[in-house]
Amino acid sequence: MRISVYCSSSPSIDQKYIDLAYDLGQAIAARGWELVWGGGKVSMMGAVARGARDGGAKTWGVIPESLLSLEFGDENATEMFVTPDMRSRKAKLEELSDAFIALPGSLGTLEELFEIWVGRYLNFHSKPVVVLDPFEVYQPLQVALDHLAALEFMKPGQREKALWTTEIERALSACIA
Prior knowledge:
Layout: E1 2-6, H1 15-30, E2 34-37, H2 43-54, E3 59-64, H3 65-68, E4 79-83, H4 86-96, E5 99-102, H5 107-121, E6 129-132, H6 139-150, E7 163-165, H7 168-174
Helix pairs in contact: 1-2
């Protein structure tokens, strides 16, 4: 099984987030699974890949050519797919993956999460979508989503297409649901 992880590449975040990513990579490897990720070697992106590889997992990176040329790419990936742009990157991530886990991140992480979540809701795919948030980074986002649901902007069942959890093992178990 291949798990796609969306997460931050910010170099200025607290170490606890980087440790979370590493631990998730280790847990993916412990199950005998493989990692698919954005191909970066910094911050949480690098940590999840290092964790997976340190546990013996294969890592499949997908990175736009413009980021690779900035020496952002992880040269230790089992295989690195280089795409012309972000749109083709997201398509390749989806193609290679059996499930998706979003860790804390910023606009890019949220954009990837929302796109894959909407795709699940619209039945473009049936792969599990999980948000792993043990530090409640996305708690204000959950409030906003509840607000949208209360105003009936979100359709019934839409929110349930993504599982939110604070536990790595629960996140991974949801990937086989």
